[in-house]
Design goal:
By secondary structure, the protein is α/β, with parallel strands linked by helices. It is built from ten helices and eight strands. The protein has helices at 2-10, 37-45, 53-63, 80-88, 102-115, 132-137, 140-158, 164-167, 212-232, 261-276; strands at residues 18-20, 68-70, 92-95, 119-129, 171-178, 187-195, 201-209, 237-238. The strands form two sheets. A four-stranded parallel sheet has the order 1-2-3-8, with helices on both faces. The relative contact order is 0.15. Bound molecules: nicotinamide-adenine-dinucleotide. The site of nicotinamide-adenine-dinucleotide (NAD) has 19 residues, from helix 6 and helix 9.
Amino acid sequence: MEDIAEFKRRNKCSRLVMIWAASTEIFLKQHAVHKTLATFEQAMRDNHKAIAPSMIYAYAALKSGVPFANGAPNLTVDIPALLQLANQNNLSICGKDFKTGQTLMKTIIAPGLKSRMLGLHGWYSTNILGNRDGEVLDDPDSFKTKEESKLSVLEYILQPEVYPQLYKDFSHVVRINYYPPRGDNKEGWDNIDIFGWLGYPMQIKIDFLCRDSILAAPIVLDLALFLDLAQRTGMKGVQEWLSFYFKSPQTAPGLYPEHDIFIQLMKLKNTLRHLRGEDLITHLGLEYYD
Ligand SMILES: NC(=O)c1ccc[n+]([C@@H]2O[C@H](COP(=O)([O-])OP(=O)(O)OC[C@H]3O[C@@H](n4cnc5c(N)ncnc54)[C@H](O)[C@@H]3O)[C@@H](O)[C@H]2O)c1
């Protein structure tokens, strides 16, 4: 907390935001010590194994009056204790895991398939990546955190419980392979087995030759501006309208995360319009025909 105060003073800042962009941590489930601020603080004093480093950074930010966004798939602020602290101090939080490469493509393609009621037998995704993130994700415990974040998007978008004939029991596999020669130039390869009218099978292949950091950096900049805006307009707690930027959006307890990028974008735009006091976008357009 002293570091935060010193940073603010030295750089003559009137407001700060903190965005976590450090390595993916090993997989952690919510633990009893995460339930309340009191149990969380005691666990920090006890150096409890359920307290991850990112949680300590987030705690320091929220204690210092700084809103916090989580760019990695770790739990971090997605626990009741830190949500309680954010609400108590009127601070905004959001996360998790920047949506930049393969999952971005997934949340663009899947809503389109569903809109045309094209069925899905399976979606196989693999990545080769040679930067430090790729090296960290080669560790099975860290990959487990990432895998959880990457796997859920299709289930939520395709709603197999509503469309069992099209989307029940599709196979979804995600792999990340550390391959040093590629450095930051990630290759995200997808094979999608779909079926159309009369059950006729078809395939889609995506080969996304992307640049990991070029895709992530603008998200960090947007989030810094929008988190600060949320703070200035008095929006506290989980900022679900920023789910557009995340693979695994944090929501209010009990709500399901929206993964469809087009709905996320509409939510973002409408929230900004709402903050400016403008009419919301409905796309009805009936007034043109009055
Ligand atoms: N396209 C993307 O780049 C992208 C997309 C989604 C999510 N992410 C996530 O963002 C995070 C950063 O990705 P990256 O490619 O910049 O990784 P990176 O390995 O290049 O950088 C991570 C940095 O975190 C530092 N670090 C590790 N543990 C720390 C700790 N406990 N305290 C402080 N610093 C610590 C490391 O020293 C390193 O400098 C990862 O969790 C990654 O999964 C990145």
